[in-house]
Amino acid sequence: MLSRIAESLFWLARYIERAEGTARILDVNYHMLLEQSQHSYHLRWEPLIVMAGEEDRFRKLYGEVNAANVFEFLAFRPDNPSSILQCISKARENARTIRDRISREMWEDINGLFHLANSFVPRDEIAAGPHRFCDKIKFGAHRFHGVTDSTLPHDEGWHFLRVGWSLERAEMTARLVDVQYHNLLDGPPAANALDNHQWMAVLRSVGAYEAYHRQYHPPIEPEKVAEMLILNPQHPHSIRFSATEVQAGLRAVSGSMFGTYTNEAERIAGRLVERLSYDRISDIFQQGLHGYLSDVLRMCGSIGEDIARTYFYYAVVA
Amino acid sequence: MVRPGLFEGYDTGGFYDEMFAAPGQPRLSYAKLVQKFATLAPGHFEERRKLADLSFLIQGITFTVYSDGRGTERLFPFDLIPRIIPNSEWQHIERGLSQRVMALNLFLHDIYGAQRILQDKRIPRSLVYSCPHFRREVIGVEVARGIHTHICGIDLVRDSKTREFCVLEDNVRTPSGVSYVLENRIVMTRTFPDAFEDLEVLPVNHYPSELSRILRSLSPRGESEAQIVLLTPGIYNSAYFEHSFLAQQMGIELVEGRDLIVDGGVVYMKTIRGLTRVDVIYRRVDDEFLDSLTFRADSVLGVPGLMGAYRAGNVALANAVGNGVADDKAIYAYVPEFIRYYLGEEPVLRSIETYICAKPDDLAYVLDHLPQLVVKAVGESGGYGMLIGPASERKRIAEFGERIRANPRNYIAQPVVPLSRVPSYDEAEQCIAGRHVDLRPYCLYDGDKVTIVPGGLTRVALQKNSLVVNSSQGGGSKDTWVLRGEG
Which residues span the domain enclosing A251? Predict the structure, then answer.
């Protein structure tokens, strides 16, 4: 497989995942706030910008952090490189450069999603609220996963897709937990009274609300939410699950045996999976959640860089 | 909304009409189709037209217009009324094209080899050497199996006056459009399956496998090991859809210049498992961008060192480098002579009378008759650099005259050919009206024989009275049917 094609598959998957994750978080956050008083309003939109890592850009473009501005910024702005529209557009661009290598169904699906996403008029959607738009994006991303799974041979190309979206998902969940935890527990006392409600929203934004209730008894406790999202071995949005997928995908490409590694990306993925498999939530809180999640994000970053070094880039031959 | 009787009141307008011999009188080849269309329920035509457009959009068979800063995607308009060619007429075309392709190939082999034709003074040496696409860099290069013109797209038009097909121009560099032939057929069979009933339409879908067979035969390491790739300039090229389509259909790797590397005179592609040797490159990148060490130094589309590997015979290129000398519009005037010289035959298909501005007498005539002539720049394609005298204002004609005087070698002129017409849907006026068409068949040459998929791309000038069929100038296309019989 050409290096460029592997790279495009990897990024195609990451962008789709990023668009979906952003859509989920926007939608859930908005609906949660509908049921709340206005005093914590500002507080609740801020974390979304922080999670996207786009605070500076946001401040340059807008005066106020409010629902309309954040929605516009995260969903539609062409000058925000991680807006949903930009992600979908870049996903499609990547798909287009490899349309001869992905299935016709995949191409038509992502192309259709691109045209659909661009058919929304931002002004109307901002007035209507994020649900209608975000729901279409979520559904579109899910369908793309399904179409991919059932039409693309599960060969090494498929594993690059798998690594791409799992790595992106691990990072998104890590940022979600980090930002929300910090925000909820360090906020003013008035906000703490709303915790229960807010933690429900966090769970919903990764589709883990029902699963949480099957596993734990009420009331919702922040530590348990963190445990669910970081360490759960089965939930597809937990960091552990996603990291395991990354490791499995990398192994499938290289053919490394269990317990061995053939490149730096695999070594770090192995270490990450090991930590997530044997650390207890109490250990994590003891050493500090923020520090732990920062480590996770750093390791995810290194995995991405080393995948590129191993498979995508060529040193110039003299 | 189109009226129930689709062709009611249709006017052939004094041109040769491919469908109607006279108003209300369809030709034999079209008789069954006209009947089918006549029984269509009101609104059906409209409905199916929209279905076809949607199908092209979802498949992303679009080209991008960047003028608005957003990169708007446009469909290459598809006209639902097919163009039909009866079998006897097609056989004549096929004979003429085969003969022409062979002659063009022999000319290229000669001009980059022994140059017999120059010694025998059948074409002026100065005309060849002044051609901008003549590549001295490949003189003496032995191409695989002696094939230069693996893929040719030869543009034919039917002259309303003489009613016969003639050759308008040859495209032997990197002709595009064949993907539309295949996609148009697929969309047509889906949206109008009933139109195919009772008419035996010859299939076109064997083009990719035929091309693949030829490419494989060029491999310097033998066919079993052949690694074949299609080299594209990338997604911003207007023909990118076609590049990816053909690569997928042939099951070969679609590569960009940055995917390839030359080491020790051998071409490799960069894969996740290291370097893999490449044997044959179906290149859709123009000569001047192929290799920044040999041609344009600023090109990032090609592969530095590629020409070295080509000269050493370590990699085959299709089409061969330097073919532009054969489809130069001034050289075009000599193709009938090539046919006589190399094959000892008379041309089957007529060429259009051509005035070569490099010749003083022709130049004088052209400058005196500009308002009646079509003037073309010799090295351009895509409908650019063209003057259609009768349709142009005096100011533009005068300007063009200046350009010709400044660089006569760069121009040729031809009389205006009244192109035949086919009924087509006019979106602006929401009616069916006669529109001018041409025909570009795609010819594949394997060194022994020429294979042509029946029909080719019919391009249609959708704007009223326009003679320019290029997609960049508001043209569209039609599915083209060659019948097993006459009707």
Answer: 160-318
**Pairs from B206-211 (Cβ < 8 Å, separation ≥ 24):** B206/B453, B207/B178, B207/B181, B207/B182, B207/B442, B207/B444, B207/B453, B208/B182, B208/B246, B208/B249, B208/B250, B209/B250, B210/B444, B210/B451, B210/B453, B211/B150, B211/B151, B211/B246, B211/B250, B211/B282, B211/B444
Nearest CA in chain B to A114: B58
Residues A129 and A200 in one domain: no
Domain count for chain A: 2
- Same domain flag for A207 and A272: yes
Q: Is B274 helix (H, G, I), strand (E, B) or coil?
A: strand
Q: What pLDDT is stored for residue A36 in this prediction?
A: 62
Question: Is A277 found in the same domain as A198?
Answer: yes
Q: What is the pLDDT of residues B347-403, one digit of tens each?
A: 999 999 999 999 999 999 999 999 999 999 987 766 677 898 988 899 999 999 999
ipTM surpasses cut 0.85:
no
| Cis upstream peptide for B220 (omega within 30°) | no
* Same domain for A259 and A118: no
- Nearest 5°: CA angle at B83, between B81 and B88? 150
Q: What does the pLDDT read at residue A38?
A: 54
How do the domains of chain B map onto residue ranges? Answer: 1-133+150-202+328-349+418-487, 353-416
Same domain assignment for residues A289 and A224: yes
Which tens digits make up the pLDDT trace of A236-289?
A: 999 999 999 999 999 999 999 888 999 999 999 999 999 999 999 999 999 899
- A111: nearest CB among B60, B255, B271: B60
For domain B353-416, give the fold.
Dna Ligase; domain 1 (3.30.1490)
Cβ separation A108–B261 shorter than 8 A: no
Judging by DSSP bridges, how do beta strands B280-283 and B316-318 pair with one another?
parallel
In this prediction, the residues of chain B whose per-residue pLDDT falls under 50 are 1-4
Q: Testing the interface with B: which of A100, A158, A253 to mutate, by most B Cβ within 10 A?
A: A100
Q: Is B250 on the interface with A (CB under 8 A)?
A: no
Residue among A99, A111, A266 with most chain B CBs within 10 A, to mutate: A99
Whether residues A13 and A116 fall in one domain: yes
Is the CB of B390 inside 8 Å of chain A's CB atoms? Answer: no
Q: Is the pLDDT of residue A189 over 60?
A: no
